[in-house]
Amino acid sequence: xxxxxxxxxxxPSGRSSVRRGAEIRVAQGEVLNLCANNYLGxxxxxxxxxxxxxxxxxxxxxxxxxxxxxxxxDLHTQLEQTISAFLGTEGTILYSxxxxxxxxxxxxxxxxxxxxxxxxxxxxSLIDGIRLCKAARLRYAYSDMTDLxxxxxxxxxxxxxxxxxxxxxxxxxxxxxxxxxVTLAERYxxxxxxxxxxxxxxxxxxxxxxPDHFGVAxxxxxxxxxxxxxxGGAVGGFTSGRKEIIELLRQRSRPYLFSNSxxxxxxxxxxxxxxxxxxxxxxxxRLRENATFFRAQLTALGFRLIxxxxxxxxxxxxxxxxxxxxxxxxLEEGVYVVGSATRSCRKIKPGFWCRCRRPIRENSxxxxxxxxxxxxRNRRDPIETSIWxxxxxxxxxxxxxDRLRAIP
Length: 408
Ligand SMILES: Cc1ncc(COP(=O)(O)O)c(C=O)c1O
Description:
By secondary structure, the protein is α/β, with parallel strands linked by helices. It contains 16 helices and 14 strands. 38% of the residues lie in helices and 14% in strands.
């Protein structure tokens, strides 16, 4: 069997060497990082670092066991309780990642008599988790409520039906229409599970995510999420919901049963991260302001954005090489973004199938941005205007340098 291998990307991912912050050091020098999922700037927060060190000193490094044998410390159960209190759920179970949380969910809850109805653009981990399950699978078109309803009708004879969706779609930064999904779920007697990895801590009161943002938290059966983004940005994931479901997962979920417990360092640091996030209205307000400002400025400069309110901001270029070229050019100016082409773009924006993904996350830190050390900061050298269909040379120069750095 032969598989072709794509050439290595020209972007500098994986090569940064300084601590997480708004600026990182890559081969090209120090750059402003607009790619990380460090939404609230907590990935290098001193209180979290301190908690991690304490966790290491007091509880050791590795558990050398899965949770149910001898891999559970008070830190793990405390963190589960803290997350439940934070989200207002009855119980929570930790996993090594949200990928595992999604991977170990569906086969426990559903069997051949049931149906899972999944948004076509759900995260890979939901897709893989669903594949492991014996229930029938139906896919509705991306965020298409008419199609969701059709699939609910189609599965009328199933014993149980579960609708699965991302809360915030990671590539485009748009939100699942949870209010409408819940209405349909109630009408057709289905349950809803939300992967809220990109919205926990970011949206909703106290950062409770998309279920709270849409005022339907009490109608969502299960939430899965990650500790690897806004909640400190290290690793770890969880599933949260009714007590009976969490108990069932504890007894049967394979990634929980057959994979090591995550280290005390992470449990201790995540505990602090959840506390900071729950009290983090100021950080969220700042993140919102930054995202709104950034969206408005880019729009004023003539760039085409996927509309929305999430801090993931996708700028559409309509062409993969152009988006990559823009990303490379921005890197020269000391701004790190990545170009990406996804099927979501092809589907929802025919003709604009590629964009430069530009989440405004790293500079949401409570600390001010450090001054630019970009060697080429004031550069106004010519670039081929012909390759930038909608923008003048001047607007690009502004975007690349001063405006981005002026974001508070
Ligand atoms: C929507 C969504 N779900 C799950 C994951 C996986 O999270 P983790 O890194 O904790 O496995 C991601 C990470 O990219 C994600 O974007």
